[in-house]
Amino acid sequence: MHTILVTGGTGYIGSHTAVELIENGYKVIIVDNLSNSLIEVLDGIENITGVRPDFEKFDLCDQKKVFSLFEKHSIDAIIHFAALKAVGESVEIPLEYYHNNIESLINLLQAMQKFNTSCFVFSSSCTVYGQPDMLPVTEKAPVKKAMSPYGNTKQISEEIIQDAIHAISSIKAISLRYFNPIGAHKTAFIGESPVGVPLNLVPFVTQTAAGVRDKLKVFGNEYNTGDGTAIRDYICIGDLAKAHVVAVDRLLKTKNKTNYEVFNLGTGKGVSVMEIIESFEKATGIKVNYEIVDRREGDIEKVWADTKYANDELGWKAETSLEDTLRSAWEWEKKVRNIKSKQ
Ligand code: UD1
Q: How close is the Cα of 219 to the center of ligand 1, in Å?
């Protein structure tokens, strides 16, 4: 049985990936400092899989603790999710973002070298493309100057990984560039739990539907798109999690073509903010109160993935429909809020 270290494993994407790994026969060790997630997420993972993953609470910036974890366990691969990820906050406290996101990565790469772990999967973002010149965006599109320190940490991290691989021949890595992950596990035992007011669209939609928020603000309706609202590629969290299992398996079985590979994880379909509202209403039968307001600073107009490379090379494809995904987000919100089904 291979042992996978999942950093940030009590977070949104990490927890769904831990479930998929366990269900595919991997042993999972989670490290998380719980700065943006709850220990109860472990109960959710256990409820779904029947297995409680090993858990250690510490900060990956602490190199001694990272090294002692590797001394204790024989780790075959790392999936590195742990990072600060709020775009606006990163503009306010850039040094914390650089320190946290970069130092933790370096500590993990150094541990890989010292303890002979060879496989690394990195949690990257389509934010590295900025507003692409051509859509859908392929992995070959140029990386554009980051619009925020958060985005810059993703770009710098990808560069650090490539430099490390160049120098340390035992290490190989895959960067997965996520588009917009949404939804929750189909059992509603785990989902997205933003702390405070949600910054992302779908948690704001579900909280508005639940009556926790008065009104969803739609940021701008004069973009150059069909209905004037901005377009993104929303991917089901379960489908996204499955791609991590494929990526780890690819590295462990040496199916990778080069020692550093990059894949887009999206659906290939662009969906506007208004279409998200309409699909949510259709999927759940609940009206979402909204108003159109000014654009949000730093937002791009439209982006969606070219998924051909990931589909062909990984043999992976996003399969869950948008409506099913939005319904799963709503089931999770209801569970969190204890709302009985209105349907
Ligand atoms: C954001 C980040 C991105 C990060 C991702 C995951 C920015 C500019 N980008 O992506 O780098 O990787 O989150 O955390 O912040 N919207 C509304 N009303 C809302 C919230 C959002 O209309 O209350 C709109 C936005 O303008 C956008 C779309 O919904 O057009 C999606 O927004 P969001 O969920 O925040 O994701 P991104 O901005 O695409």
A: 9
